[in-house]
Design a protein that fits this description.
- By secondary structure, the protein is an alpha/beta fold.
- It has helices at residues 9-29, 49-70, 72-95, 98-101, 135-139, 143-160, 163-170, 181-186, 196-202, 211-222, 231-236, 257-265, 280-286, 325-333, 360-377, 384-394; strands at 122-123, 131-132, 247-251, 270-275, 295-299, 313-317, 344-350, 398-404, 411-418.
- The strands form two sheets. The protein has a seven-stranded mixed beta sheet with strand order 5-4-3-6-7-9-8, with helices on both faces. It has a two-stranded antiparallel ribbon with strand order 1-2.
- Bound molecules: S-adenosylmethionine (SAM).
- InterPro entries: COMT-like, COMT_C, SAM-dependent_MTases_sf.
Length: 419
């Protein structure tokens, strides 16, 4: 059955059904076992033109079905974020002979295979030589999505190509941000503690100074448009209303998107966004006009003591996962002198679930985040238990009071306070 040029979900599912039925019949006639993920499965299909035709039809329709079922934005988000890890991980496994190191009757956790994307743009008519948008290329006109793709492919994608060299030269890099694949690719030869963020602050390569940091800020502000990452989970994950006319310090708050969401829902709360001074102009541009007196910006380096004393909450969204333990502890200890007895430290970050608990797409996201943290920072994602251990290591008096997770999601709100 010829596939239409613009298939729908149902057409693809029907094509997969029909071609899988043909394929299994052909295999059975040739007395060849069906493919399987188990380690005694045949490595190849039989060389038979009919089998070849059927299985390519299944694979092509499955690729399109995957694309359409994610939808344009999530497809682009996933391609730019996760696809690069497939080839990087394959290279790491190959270079370090992991295939030989795992015994055939042992176990392995590596299962995801990269998929190449297409249907970004289409030809107007066959042989017309004119290109038109598809829904996917049209979705990529969003500046925030472009920033996300740019950061993931241009910053992190290039770094992935240096992962093998980084592991050979630095090993785990002693948790230093300047002993990473990102360092080899973007700023080789700098001090061990000179990391991606130092580079963003200094960078003037390929554009006006600060363009790369601004792009990173835009990319971060795109994150909450993803399923399970929406602001509502941060807003519902904590009793923000209990802070009344309180003050929230959004540490490493980038261009202020999280604070704006909190201040919009809780009109009596005031937020102070702290980040590099270079982000202030973009913060000002994106701040809604009616928020000027409630969401303000303060240049602050979180490796110095927290200057805002006695805030109700010190919010760290996607901050700690960028740092190895020794740095995380330093960041936390810089908050403690500023805290009053009832202040909270609110961590919004990945809370790694046990393997197999969340659906594959979510699990792939956690693995991708974990790998991206290693590539860029020599850091990693943490489980609930690891968060509890970390805060205790920073200060014996600190405890995790509550963890709220979105349904089927992996990004939690971890509330920490004095015992
Ligand atoms: C992964 S982003 C998270 C941004 C924002 N909290 C969010 O979740 O969208 C990490 C942020 O930490 C900021 N950052 C990195 N090092 C910092 C430092 N030493 N002091 C203050 N901010 C820093 C970066 O500029 C960036 O905005």
């Amino acid at each position: 059955m010829a596939m239409s040029a613009n298939p729908l979900l149902k057409d693809l599912a029907e094509s997969i059904n029909a071609n899988v039925a043909a394929l299994t019949t052909q295999l059975s006639k040739l007395d060849h076992a069906e493919p399987t993920f188990s380690n005694d499965g045949a490595p190849d299909y039989p060389q038979d033109p009919e089998v070849q035709r059927s299985r390519m039809a299944v694979a092509s329709a499955a690729l399109d079905l995957y694309h359409l079922s994610l939808g344009p934005s999530l497809f682009l988000r996933t391609q730019s974020f996760a696809a690069k890890f497939d080839t990087m991980v394959l290279e790491v496994l190959n270079e370090f002979k992991v295939f030989d190191a795992v015994p055939l009757d042992g176990s392995t956790s590596y299962s995801d295979i990269a998929t190449m994307s297409n249907r970004i743009f289409a030809e107007k008519e066959p042989n017309s030589g004119r290109v038109i948008h598809t829904a996917t290329s049209a979705a990529a006109r969003s500046p925030r999505l472009q920033a996300w793709i740019g950061h993931n492919l241009n910053d992190m994608g290039k770094a992935c190509a240096h992962m093998v060299d980084s592991l050979r030269i630095f090993g785990d890099g002693d948790g230093e941000p300047g002993r990473t694949a990102v360092a080899l690719s973007m700023f080789p030869g700098r001090d061990p503690n000179y990391g991606f963020y130092s580079f963003l602050e200094d960078d003037d390569q390929g554009g006006e100074k600060g363009w790369r940091m601004k792009r990173f800020g835009e990319a971060m502000s795109f994150v909450p448009s993803g399923e399970g990452l929406e602001f509502k989970y941060i807003l519902d994950g904590l009793d923000w209303g209990a802070f009344g006319e309180g003050v929230i310090v959004d540490v490493g708050g980038s261009i202020g998107h999280v604070s704006v969401a909190v201040a919009s829902k809780f009109p009596s709360i005031k937020c102070i966004v702290q980040d590099f001074a270079a982000l202030e102009p973009r913060f000002k541009e994106s701040l809604p006009a009616n928020m000027g007196d409630r969401v303000t910006f303060q240049a602050h380096d979180f490796f110095n003591e927290q200057p805002v004393k006695g805030a109700n909450a010190y919010l760290f969204k996607h901050i700690f996962h960028n740092w190895s333990d020794k740095y995380r502890i330093r960041i936390l200890r810089n908050i403690i002198p500023a805290m009053k007895k009832e202040s909270s430290i609110v961590i919004v970050d990945t809370v790694v679930p046990p393997r197999g608990v969340v659906i594959t797409v979510e699990e792939r996201l956690v693995l991708g985040m974990d790998i991206q943290m290693a590539v860029a920072f020599n850091a990693k994602e943490r489980s609930g238990q690891e968060w509890a251990t970390l805060v205790k290591q920073a200060d014996e008096r600190l405890v995790v009071k509550n963890i709220t997770m979105p349904p089927d999601g992996v990004f939690g709100v971890v509330e920490v306070g004095f015992q």
